[in-house]
Amino acid sequence: MIESITQFITQQLKLKVNEAKSAVARPQERKFLGFSFTSGPEVKRVIAPKALDRFKQRIREITRRAKSVSMETTMEELAPYMRGWRSYFHPASLPHHSTPQFCMLSPRHHPSYAQSPHR
Predict the structure, then answer these.
(1) Which of 7, 25, 74, 110 sits CB 3.0–4.6 Å from 29 for a disulfide?
(2) How far, in Å, CA of 63 to CA of 39, rounded?
């Protein structure tokens, strides 16, 4: 089946097919543009685990303790990243386990904020 699809795409549509990324499989078995799909009677689009891991890693980079920048500078870098991530993944069903990713931003994760006299 994959051969006939590949042949149609390359010959009729004149497009290249990346064999490493191409597969015929159930949606639950594949990841696409940072999304994956649940199995069960009602299939839902969810954020892929790899995308969540990248999100957490980027938040750690922006808010790392060794950075020695002001809270304002950190927030100026963090705000557009969070807005963009939320805008991109908004259509996905956010499972309950994804909520802690946003809790990573609590004061205990950024010592300059936790020690701020203006809190």
Answers:
(1) 25
(2) 35
Q: Number of H helices and number of E strands within the chain?
A: 5, 2
Beta bridge pairs of residue 36: 46
Tokens 């790392």, residue located? 64
CB-CB contact of 92 with 35 (8 Å): yes
Report pLDDT digits (tens) over 51-104: 999 999 999 999 887 778 888 898 999 999 999 998 898 876 655 444 545 555
Is the dihedral angle over the CA atoms 27, 88, 74, 113 positive or is it negative?
negative
- Residues pairing with 93 in the sheet: 46
- Rounded-to-integer distance, Cα 2 and Cα 68, Å: 52
